[in-house]
């Protein structure tokens, strides 16, 4: 890394979002921390992204265009390759950050040299609503493997575009896996937090825009790819743990039980809206996850038997359309909330 390199690289991966990327670029260039570069990494778009980027007159802004589409996380990896900074922030092209975001994160890294990854608070924008998201009321450091265990015990609490890392991290852990084209970020957080310290920063925010335009909506509402990927990630984590698997059995059991519940919810509230997919697919996913649960006590054995009974009941409910409609109403679905 050259002495002339900026300390922070804010990379904005994008694909056919020329109409949305302006806000992300403006927020990156408006940072109170000045030692930055902003790199728009285009994934072979067919829109006028070059013109949009060229409209900004700022020497800190660079444009990189891939010759072919590398996929979502292939483009994240391209960001890692072209970034010149000591720290890397991958900001999604439909999101934006508070002006103090970079300054706050860099100061935290400088104060805590053991931390390799930070994530922040968020404001989720859904149509005309703005929902504040704070993981805790203060900054927190998760010494390894505490972050790993929490990510399994709790629903993934890391908002992807809020993540900043030391770039050297990728030499130790590796880039984003392309084995999980829809949920590789979750796998990356698990890999990192198992062996290295991560941290939450409360007093800065990413503005996270949800809606039908987003990858999250596509992967969770219009097809089951995100759910399939998550199950594959649990299988891979078990393989990665090897002889250490018994140490984390309870954590993985908790994640698998929650995943089974997510499958029921998705099957009843979203399954009918997935083109070419029958909601019964989610029973299959739930049954596969059930098979991975390793009970460690009599109560857990009984709990696993109970889950199997629920899965068998879901076979009937998923097969009959009017039952699906009734249960969907009982779930009180929120269509735009992930």
From TrEMBL:
The chain crosses the membrane at residues 305-327. The keyword Glycosyltransferase does not apply. InterPro entries: Glyco_trans_2-like, Nucleotide-diphossugar_trans. One of its GO terms (molecular function) is hexosyltransferase activity. The keyword DNA-binding does not apply. Residues 9-173 form the Glycosyltransferase 2-like domain. Pfam families: Glycos_transf_2. PANTHER family: GLYCOSYLTRANSFERASE, UDP-GLCNAC:BETAGAL BETA-1,3-N-ACETYLGLUCOSAMINYLTRANSFERASE-LIKE PROTEIN 1. This is Glycosyltransferase.
């Amino acid at each position: 890394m050259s002495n002339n390199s900026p300390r922070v690289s804010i990379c904005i991966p994008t694909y056919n979002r020329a109409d949305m990327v302006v806000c992300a670029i403006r927020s990156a260039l408006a940072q109170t921390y000045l030692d930055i570069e902003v790199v728009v990494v285009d994934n072979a778009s067919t829109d006028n992204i070059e013109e949009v980027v060229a409209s900004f007159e700022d020497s800190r802004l660079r444009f990189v265009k891939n010759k072919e589409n590398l996929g979502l996380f292939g483009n994240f990896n391209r960001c890692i390759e072209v970034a010149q900074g000591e720290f890397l922030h991958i900001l999604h092209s439909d999101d934006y950050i508070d002006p103090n975001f970079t300054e706050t994160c860099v100061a935290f890294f400088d104060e805590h040299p053991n931390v390799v990854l930070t994530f922040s608070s968020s404001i989720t924008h859904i149509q005309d609503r703005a929902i504040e998201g704070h993981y805790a009321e203060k900054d927190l450091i998760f010494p390894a493997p505490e972050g790993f265990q929490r990510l399994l015990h709790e629903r993934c609490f890391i908002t992807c575009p809020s993540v900043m890392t030391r770039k050297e991290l990728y030499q130790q852990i590796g880039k984003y896996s392309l084995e999980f084209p829809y949920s590789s970020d979750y796998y990356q957080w698990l890999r990192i937090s198992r062996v290295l310290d991560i941290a939450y920063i409360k007093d800065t925010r990413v503005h996270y825009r949800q809606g039908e335009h987003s990858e999250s909506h596509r992967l969770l509402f219009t097809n089951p790819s995100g759910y399939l990927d998550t199950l594959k990630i649990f299988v891979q984590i078990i393989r990665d743990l090897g002889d250490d698997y018994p140490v984390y059995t309870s954590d993985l059991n908790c994640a698998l039980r929650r995943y089974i519940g997510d499958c029921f919810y998705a099957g009843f509230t979203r399954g009918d809206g997935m083109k070419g997919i029958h909601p019964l697919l989610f029973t299959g996913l739930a049954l596969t996850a059930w098979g991975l649960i390793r009970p460690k006590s009599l109560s857990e054995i009984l709990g696993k038997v109970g889950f199997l009974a629920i899965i068998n009941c879901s076979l009937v409910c998923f097969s009959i359309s009017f039952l699906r409609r009734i249960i969907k109403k009982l779930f009180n679905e929120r269509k735009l909330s992930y």
